[in-house]
Amino acid sequence: MNERTVFFVSDQTGVTAETLGNSLLTQFDGVEFKPVTVPFVDTVDKAIQVARRIDRSASKSGIRPLVFTSFVQDEVRAPLLQCQGLVLDFFEAFLAPLEAELNKKSSHTLGKAHGMQDKPSYDSRIDATNFAMEADDGHTTRHYDRADVILTGVSRSGKTPTCLYLALQYGVFAANYPLTEEDLESGRLPDSLMPFRDKLYGLTITPVRLRQIRLERRSVGRYASAQQVSYELRAAEALYKRHNVPFIDTTNSSIEEIASTILNDTGVERRVRP
Amino acid sequence: MNERTVFFVSDQTGVTAETLGNSLLTQFDGVEFKPVTVPFVDTVDKAIQVARRIDRSASKSGIRPLVFTSFVQDEVRAPLLQCQGLVLDFFEAFLAPLEAELNKKSSHTLGKAHGMQDKPSYDSRIDATNFAMEADDGHTTRHYDRADVILTGVSRSGKTPTCLYLALQYGVFAANYPLTEEDLESGRLPDSLMPFRDKLYGLTITPVRLRQIRLERRSVGRYASAQQVSYELRAAEALYKRHNVPFIDTTNSSIEEIASTILNDTGVERRVRP
Question: Is this structure's pTM higher than 0.80?
Answer without folding.
Answer: yes
